[in-house]
Amino acid sequence: MRLIFWKDFLDLIFPRNCPQCGRALFDFEQCLCTICQGSLPVANFHLRPYDNELTSKIRGLTKVNRVMAYLRFSKKGKSQKLLHQLKYKNKPEIGEEMGRLYGLLLSQNGYLKEWDVIVPVPLHPMKQKRRGFNQSEKFALGLAKPLDLAVENLLERRKFTETQTKKSRLERLENVDEVFGLRQGENISGMRILLVDDVITTGATLCACSNVLLANGAKHVDLVTIAAGGQ
Length: 231
Prior knowledge:
The protein is α/β, with parallel strands linked by helices. Helix content is 39%, strand content 15%. The protein has one domain (41-228): Rossmann fold, CATH 3.40.50. The chain has nine helices and six strands, in the order H-H-H-E-H-H-E-H-H-E-H-E-E-H-E. Strands 1-6-5-2 form a four-stranded parallel beta sheet, with helices on both faces.
């Protein structure tokens, strides 16, 4: 009875609201309300993971394997609102919830035991300290539970890069050249790696990370993001 009282008191002082519509959440709703979950712009890249618009986008930049994204990104749309709150409004729980939901979808579509480890794209330590967390790692942690996988920070960002938001495709590729590296002492020979990030636009960052992993002996690297955006 005392625990219920304190929970009710905390919910009154610090209400749990859906970040999409603002409605108060029920106890069984972890982050998004059921209505907003049902209205997410879910993509179906997992149904054609080897041959879709995302694999076409990165072909020639890295050795293409499977490329997937949970949501379709659109400006001023639901996916953009969620990503903005995740990255700039201090809501890391959104990243984990997107990972959990997509992990469940993948597990229900034959993707269990497909990978050995999940690797998030790293932030530069300065940027991570300023934000307080790595949004890609939060997404990875959400994915890990339903897929029964470990999350390993195998990569490090060795250079601080400017934001990619307003750069052209060529500028993005040049901006991440030689930025990433494998952490010292890590052995990934023969591993099947699921590399994850928050969003894929040109694919420059993911491809740079994928190339590092492949050059260090990974068997293959699959790419997964929360959302897939335009150029």
